[in-house]
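Please check both lines for our workbook:

___
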Amino acid sequence: MTLLIDLTEPFQFDFFVKALIAATMVGALTGLIGVFVVLRRMSYIGHGMSHSVFGGAVVGYVAGFNFYLAAGIWGFLSALLINQTTRRRQIGADAAIGIITTASFAFGVALISRARSITRNFDAALFGNILGVTGGDLWVIAGVLAVTVLLVFFLYKQLLFLTFDVDVAPIYGVRAGMVDSLFALVLAATIIASIRIMGVTLIAASLVIPPVIARLLTDRFAVMLVLSTAIGSAAGFAGLFISYYVDIASGASIVLFSAGLFAVTIAVVSVKDWVRTGRPRLATKDIPSAEARAVFD
């Protein structure tokens, strides 16, 4: 009975309920979009885009604009610029992301250094402030999550193809440029919706860890999407509970819980492989590009 009372205690507080809903939705959102980020080997983009959005948030604050408006415009422009730059084969995706996003972050830092009085206002953007979530934030997160789910549902075949066989995709009628641009915009929206919850420093982890765990558990793309979304959602839910009782930053708690799940998963998978084959798994099998072509054939 005492355990039940302890577990239900946080629900007495309105701020915790809002935070729990936000953490669960953000976990599901980053887990879903993170599958494409990880499989396309763009893990660095989560870290980079969050820094870029931070620059836009600072500009918006100084100019007196709404956070989501300023961060949204800046983030979308950065995403499109990165997308167009990476399409030039002589420039790698990591280099394009590094140049554009670090320049944006540096611009934000420069503005803060000129007006030191505003530094404290960006602690939440840097480290997250999930307990300060408002009803408006919940609607923004819910809206981005809904749009992302719809995009994945209606563009599933195209996204699958671009993830595994981008060079062959145009032969099958996939409009790579348009789909890539849509994906970049949705990724930017994900970063913008998540930044107040996870903070600039932790978004990359929430984009990467759930998909990697799911990848260890399955070689099927559709299953990986579902698993990663569920793992991200569960990590957000459980991580927030842990942060309440241990009294640590909620964003850090969510990431540490996810990292713990990863450690347990890789240990279990390694032991199972050792028992079955006499040696640990050294690498996951590639998801075959034939899976992408099959949906068009």
